[in-house]
Amino acid sequence: MKLTDTPIELGTENIGKLLKQYAIPAIIAMMASSLYNITDSIFIGHGVGPLAISGLAITFPLMNLAAAFGSLMGVGASTLLSVRLGQKDYNTANSILGNVFIVNLFIGISFTVITLLFLDPILYFFGASKKTLPYAHDFMVIILLGNVITHTYLGLNAMLRSSGKPKQSMYATIFTVIINLILNPLFIFGLGWGIKGSAFATVISQIIVLTWQIYLFSNKNNFIHIQKGIFKLNKYIIKDSLAIGMSPFLMNAASSVIIILINQGLLKYGGDLAIGAYGIVNRIAFLFVMIVLGLNQGMQPIAGYNFGAKLYHRVKEVLKKTITGATIVMSIGFFIVELIPHVVASIFTNDEELINIASVGLRIVFICYPIVSLQIVISTFFQSINMAKKAIILSLTRQVIFLIPFLLILPNFLGITGIWISMPIADFFSTILAILMLSNQFKEFNKQNLNKP
């Protein structure tokens, strides 16, 4: 293997230029992914009704849990791939691809079988009522049957990005969105399949794009490609990938617990429509979070490669630039939501009561958005440089240590407002902790004289 076949630009090119090169495709892909979820809600809200939005919101914890298991191997393996490329360990880099295939197939099938066996009790526990259960059930059965496709699709997309092909990773997500946008109205309005139509559109679009991803990785001219011998399970690759991927796994798993508590509280203090309002708030909030995650995905291979190559001054520089960009993005979200919440909520439904509840929720939830970008970036930064324990700590602080107690206590005094306000309070405290941990890490770098070229 020639050195020119490897992404050595990660260790030599200008950091600002690299971040744009890797982050812009990732941002576009993440925005497309978020718009993909938003359009699902819009089509369901206008094509099926406000209770269908509530039914869809009931599925969020299960969707997050599925994403948690999907990211457990995929995200960890992509980070490991970047580090191995920085270390010029090319054989292991290719073996990582094969292990991602096998482990994601096993996890995806296992998750589907177990969840389908107990689907209705799970949905009731998540906050479903007799009115919303049929919508949630119909949607999740189809999504779960396609879960192994979703896991493999997400895993290969992470591999594309970390192997120096950020544009192809972006195209994969965009293609999924475009296909979904075509199939969603056809299935919901044209064929009258209701919420099932949205689920079918999701799975079919991922099957088509997964086929294209496999085609890309079948090209022997690519640096990382499918070849004989790479599908042999390697316990060290699996162990390291799972250790690194444990942070996003726990973050998504904890997010599932949080949404369950939110849905249960909203059902108690506000009814089915309040859950639908949270569904709207969640979709808008994630639009801006996903942009920041796109920045993080652009940062990850750069930070991982340079950390592996011991170019620590470049690691520090890419972190600073990522934080700056993320803060700008989240501040834009803050101003839009605070100024025109009613307009934002009305995109999803014509139901005035649902719009009013969602408008209040949006304004409260976004209060700390200008600073929460720091917590998101710093957590991913520790993950990118293979400091899994610190990434896990930061992932759990907001979701578990701070948010859960507030969700259990404040609604008893403030009702539905207590549920909304718990989120920005947790954002504030978790951001302060992230800043303190990063400051301590930089002190360690300085002690070891690692910030110098």
List keywords for this structure.
mainly alpha, transmembrane, 453 residues, 0% strand, 18 helices
Describe this structure in words.
This protein starts with 14 loop residues before the first helix and ends in a 6-residue tail after the last helix. Helix 15 crosses helix 18 (416-447). The protein has helices at 15-47, 50-58, 60-86, 90-117, 119-125, 133-145, 147-162, 166-190, 195-217, 235-269, 272-308, 312-339, 341-346, 352-365, 369-384, 388-409, 411-414, 416-447. It contains 18 helices and no strands. The chain has one domain. With 453 residues, it is mostly helical. Helices cover 83% and strands 0% of the residues. Residues 1-6 have low confidence and may be disordered.
Fraction of residues in β-strands:
under 5%
Largest sheet: none
What is the overall silhouette?
globular
Kindly report the oligomeric state of this protein. single chain
End-to-end span in angstroms?
Answer: 28 Å
How many H/I helices?
18
Strands, count: 0
User: Using only CA atoms, what is the Rg?
Assistant: 21 Å
Give the topology string: H per helix, E per strand.
Answer: HHHHHHHHHHHHHHHHHH
Category by helix and strand content: mainly alpha
Average pLDDT confidence is: 82
Low-confidence stretches: 1-6
**Helical amount among residues, as a percent range?**
over 70%
Transmembrane segments: 21-39, 51-75, 96-119, 139-160, 172-193, 199-218, 242-262, 274-295, 323-348, 360-382, 391-413, 419-438
Membrane topology: Multi-pass membrane protein
GO biological process, one term: response to antibiotic
Main location: membrane
